[in-house]
Amino acid sequence: MSLSELYQEVILDHGKNPRNLREMPDATHVAEGYNPLCGDQIKVFLRVAGDVVEDASFLGRGCAISQASASMMTQAIKGQTLAKAEELFENFRDAVTTQADGGCDHSSEPTFEDAFQDESLGVLSCLTGVRNYPNRIKCAVLAWHAMHSALHEGSKVTTE
Amino acid sequence: MPTKAPTDLRSQFPALAQEVNGKPLAYLDNASTTQRPAVVLEAMQCFYQHDNANVHRGVHALSQRATDEFDAARSTVAKFIHASNANSVIFTKGCTESINLVAATWGFQNIREGDRVLVSTMEHHANIVPWQVATERAGAVVEPVPIFDDCSLDMEALESMLKKGRAKVVAVKHVCNASGTVNPIGEITKLAHEHGAVVMIDGAQGLAHQAVDVQALDVDFYSIASHKVYGPMGFGALYGKPEHLEGMPPYQTGGGMIRSVSFEETIYAAVPDKFEPGTPNVAGAIGLARALDWVTEVGLDRIQAVEHELGRSCTEQLQDVPGVRIIGTAPGKASIVSFVMEQAHPHDVGTILDSEGVAVRTGQHCCHPLLDRMGVPATTRASISVYNNEEDIDSLMRGVKRVAQLFG
Fold it and tell me: How many structural domains are present in chain A?
């Protein structure tokens, strides 16, 4: 796993110019995510009508990975049903937390492509490279946990 | 002025001779923990291989040897910090436990409702939270002592806070782990004493880089972390003035800290045993003592000269990179170089530096109030030790330039 795989163009782009980075006055669901390890804070806003996520946005600051992940998440879940958003959450979480190449041996990387060019994740699969950087996984899942929490309890979550 | 740690010094540290991500390791995370020289590792192994026995208990040869070495270690620590008496050194598992011990015992006895504990804004959480707990229990308050933009302590503010009265404790660190500020602890102690407060000095970052004379400084309590001064992890000490230690109740209780026990009455042992129940970390004590001897052998002057020169070089080179801002610019600061980059978050900086074999700390350094005060969510911190050299700084700069390139 090389650095350029972690920091792919699309991630750098979303990190620098996060999409849907705004407050949402008419949000129906809000939750905060906090990573005490690095100080990343994210607030996720959702507007749900019926069983559809009509709009998704976030506010917060953090590393390129957490910003890109939040940005891409808002794009991915906007317009989706609650069930689909939940499914994406689970697939994404599983994809970034599954250690596929067993640590030190970086020569056995192809599984990355095989396992995670998951159609259901689409462009989100570019973030799954963080699973080879265990201390960065929390950055990638922070916004997702906040989104999940917003839909379920609407409270502050931490990825500690 | 030497700019390179001579190879003989660097080669004494086995962990430094390795590659990380295909690059030579540039270990610049010394404020988190230093590496240990072979002599420390050998001293600890030697204890377990030859003298391993419990202390202060048996009458057999090994127990006597272990006891002698353990007691000698206490004397070495006391001598290193110029304590008048070896018994004013209590062995603990580190700075955190040392401060908790003081807050829970001295604090329990002396902090009353309406009292105040003055804690500097730059404190590590380990010198904040124990005081929050102690004051909450007593109905007292913790008040932050302000700092300036360069991360130096506002001494005038401290003085006026002391003048308001009822300040029982001033809690301040010797050297700031996040900004490198070296606090004038002699002056702080004098002020505190004039107003009837005791001082708790968090010495975590002090001992490896600064001369410490607890008598000349007149400090009441000074905490020591072994692993930040080339000794083993999970071990440390607390210096306390004998008159304080004598009157303090025990922190934890059990075997080894008593003179006699019956169901009617238990009489505690004298200091330091009163504060050290259970089987102590004998190898830890031996390792710390060997580490302090190593520091003495190398010489604090030489350590300071090497670290100062590398710190200066590191700071100057970082300042030349567009977008870099140094956090902590107090005059006479230690070689702890905390910085932020406009282009990238510290976590991204840390990952990229790691790919260059450079170990730094990124995050909040257990100093949330300080970083809030400085208006940054986190920093990247390069902290220098005597075994570092210009090549390490070169590696750091290569990584920083790569960050600027990737995120620029």
Answer: 1
Q: Is A41 on the interface with B (CB under 8 A)?
A: yes
Mean pLDDT calculated for residue range B147-169: 98
Specify whether B26 is located in the same domain as B119: no
- Residue A37 with chain B: CB contacts under 8 Å: 363
- Shared domain for B172 and B317, answered yes or no, is no
Domain stops at, among B247, B275, B296: B296
Shared-domain flag, residues B123 and B213: yes
CATH, residue A36? 3.90.1010.10
Range of the domain at A24: 3-154
Which of B327, B341, B343, B345 is the best substitution to test chain A (most A C-beta atoms within 10 A)? B345
- Cα–Cα distance measured from residue B233 to residue A70, given in angstroms and rounded to the nearest whole number: 38
Residue closest to B34 by CA, chosen among B13, B19, B18: B13
| A30 contacts A43 by C-beta, under 8 angstroms | yes
Lookup: tokens for B125: 């959480």
- In DSSP terms, which residues pair with B381 in a beta bridge? B338, B361
A63 touches chain B (CB under 8 A): yes
Same-domain check for residues B344 and B226: no
One domain for residues B143 and B199: yes
- Could you give the ipTM of this predicted complex? 0.82
Q: Which chain A residues are closer than 8 Å to B347 by Cβ?
A: 38, 40, 62-63, 65, 136, 139
- Smallest CA–CA distance, residue A65 to chain B, in Å, is 8
Q: CA-to-CA distance for B370 and B388, rounded, in angstroms?
A: 27
Helix, strand, coil shares, percent, chain A, to 5 = 50, 20, 30
Judge whether residue B3 has pLDDT over 60: no
Q: What is the pLDDT of residues B45-98, one digit of tens each?
A: 999 999 999 998 778 999 999 999 999 999 999 999 999 999 999 999 999 999
Q: Considering the domain boundaries, does residue A159 fall inside one?
A: no
Residue reference for tokens 């994740």:
A121
Contacts of A139 in chain B (CB under 8 A): 347
Number of domains composing chain B: 2
Please report, for the domain that includes residue B339, its CATH number. Answer: 3.90.1150.10
Are B289 and B318 in a shared domain? no
pLDDT digits (tens, 9 = 90+) for A16-34: 999 999 999 999 999 999 8
B234 and B147 in one domain? Answer: yes
Rounded to the nearest angstrom, the minimum Cα separation between B363 and chain A is 4
pLDDT value of residue A100: 53
Closest chain B residue to the Cα of A2, Cα to Cα: B355
* Residues of chain B neighbouring A12 (CB-CB closer than 8 A): 406-407
Active site residue B46: no
Q: Determine the structural domain holding residue B275 and report its residue range.
A: 42-296
CA B290 to chain CA centroid, Å, is 17
Q: Where are the alpha helices (DSSP H) in A58-105?
A: 64-77, 82-97
CA B88/CA B386 separation, integer angstroms: 29
Q: Are residues B401 and B279 in the same domain?
A: no
- Residue A111 covered by a domain: yes
Please identify which of the residues B95, B151, B314, B366 carries the catalytic annotation.
Answer: B366
